[in-house]
Amino acid sequence: MDDDWLPYDLKQRRSRRQNSQRKQVKGWLPTLVFGSLGVLSIGVGMMEMGAGQMTELACVRSSTKRLACSRTVTTGLTREATIEIKNIEKSEMQQVGRKFRNAYRVMLVTTDGEVPLTEDFKSDKRESLEHIEQLNEFIQNDSEPKLQLQVDDRAQSNLFGLMFILTGILWVLMAIVVQIAVNRKSVLTQKVY
């Protein structure tokens, strides 16, 4: 469209309006990307914080020297899940991984097969060995009437979730800073005209 017939003042106003409309569109993509990454990271962190587990093994020795144990798993996202474990003969370690990246968990060996003490593997071999020693001592010592054992990984899960949440907050702040910078730049360029 030809603007030759408009006075000079109206041409400048029209040009400024068109430039400001074009410049307001800039900056939405980085803001959208950073903001989405932030919200996603915060959501993953919240899920991770609720996924930590506490496993409790309670064993009682009957008058006939038989062991009756119950394993209760509690998480932040689900209710307690309890299973009965009978006829435990011993406990041993299960290991997965490669040469330098191993993970461990305690297995309860029964007459019917093996039952894991925890659903997840942990990287702390020392803690698993302590639980195995404690369980095997109880199984072999007939004079001990009961055993209470807890494995709690909620602190580790909460720390990992908190790292995701803090990263998400940084992404959201970055989105806000980008939007402010784009808006400030568009305001400054409008003043120049």
Question: What does this 3D model show about the protein?
Answer:
The longest helix is centred in the last third of the chain and has 39 residues, at about 155-190. The chain has two domains: about 25-50 and about 155-190; about 55-150, no CATH class. The strands form two sheets. It has a four-stranded antiparallel β-sheet. A three-stranded antiparallel β-sheet has the order 4-5-6, with helices on one face. It is rod-shaped, with a radius of gyration of 31 Å. By secondary structure, it is an alpha+beta fold. Helices cover about 50% and strands about 30% of the residues. The protein is built from four helices and seven strands.
Descriptive tags:
4-stranded antiparallel beta sheet; 2 domains; 28% strand; 3-stranded antiparallel beta sheet; alpha+beta; 193 residues
The CA-CA distance between the termini, in Å, is 21 Å
The helix-strand sequence is HHEEEEEEHEH
* Uncertain segments: none
Query: What fraction, in percent, of the residue positions are helical?
Result: 40-55%
Round the mean pLDDT to the nearest integer and report it: 80
Strand order of the largest sheet: 3-2-1-7
The fraction of residues assigned to DSSP E strands is 25-35%
Task: Give the radius of gyration.
Answer: 31 Å
Q: Largest sheet, if any?
A: 4 strands, antiparallel
Q: Tell how many strands the DSSP assignment holds.
A: 7
Shape category: rod-shaped
